[in-house]
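Sorry to interrupt, but I need a hand with the structure work. Could you add the entry underneath, on a fresh line?
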Amino acid sequence: MSRSVFRCIAGCTGDYPLDEVIYKCPKCGDLLEVVHDIEALKARSAASWIKLFDERYQRTTWPYGSGVWGKKEWVQPHVADDNVVSMMEGGTNLLWAERYGRTLGLPDLWIKQCGVSHTGSFKDLGMTVLVSTVKQMIAEGKPIRAVACASTGDTSAALAAYGAAAGIRTMVILPRGKVSTAQLVQPLANGAVVMAIDGDFDACMAVVKRLAEEEGVYLANSMNSLRIEGQKTVSIEMVQQFDWGVPDWVVIPGGNLGNVSALGAGFSMMRELGLIQKLPRICVAQAAAANPLYRAYKAGWDKFEAIAAQPTLASAIQIGNPVSIRKAVRTLTAFDGVVEQASEAELADAAAAADLTGLFNCPHTGVALAALEKLVKRGEIRGSDRVVVVSTANGLKFTDFKVQYHEGTLAEVPAPKHANKPVLLPNDYTAIRDAVRRSMDAAAAAAPAKQ
């Protein structure tokens, strides 16, 4: 079995076991990352890894049917199978968005639907690794009494669900009034201790960092690199779903920025081990109201400054001081990456436009779609490119956003381009028939003329 350790991203010497309670480098205070023994993993050929992963994919042999644990040797090899806490995360649909792509001039557009998961977001991928490791640590006698996180909704849902499955107490700190009802009820239903405080995500993060210094409280946010190990399987899985082909572009929403470094880690590991020969370009999409990475991209990476994030419909990425900024910059530099932003109207209209082709997008995916539209419009993404947009959460978590958009009551979007209000009619057949005819006539008039 290969050995995996924590190591400082700034290059400080020293390796730390993955079952040690440690989040930052004790020498310089920078973030840690999980480093795998690539030379040991090379003992198996690329073809053999591909065969193994394909044989396991979505099968029932525990725990390898999971999209994460099917790549266990690349993720967390030291966790005993009996301590794995899995909801069969991963294995999510890579949807060919043929009709929506055609409207953009992108016939090879795909949506990686990470929200089709147990708790409805990509956070499950990282949380299965973290909670499984904690379960292993507790079994080995580590004095962990609770796992805690700051969250804008999806992280808390994933932590609460996996903690409940493992029988581990969980505590979540949320910004009061800034998460959707669906997101709030998930950790409550799973028995987490939910603390809603006056402040934004950055304030919640400051509190949970201090709590993690208390004995017995383990930190579950993405500054804990165990989360990244699960999230990196998004890139491995999408390549697997393309029969081990690599897309030209991947577009992903960015808030705390753990996701972009996770994507980079997965692609880089596949290339190091010979499973792929090229890397995609990556675009990180930010809401204009919470865009510190975009500002740094425009001004120069060395000029990054934290900001006070403003309210945005994409509440999960309303983060002005991202923990994983250095990892994100490193990844974007290595992947010839770009950063784009979207206004509130742009993200809402982009989500609605894609919905009209059969999708049902969360506002954060709307940010990514709006960024995609801009990159296509200026020719940075070409019509011949294969593009994957990572949809990070299920649109059903954000029904208030959807309803208000179509009602035209979102203050941030005074003129929604694709609003679709219900037609209110009496219980009268003639009135209903006439409304149906008017609808069909309007659709026919709006349809492009056949050549």
Notes: The mean pLDDT is 94. The first strand starts at residue 4 and ends at 8.
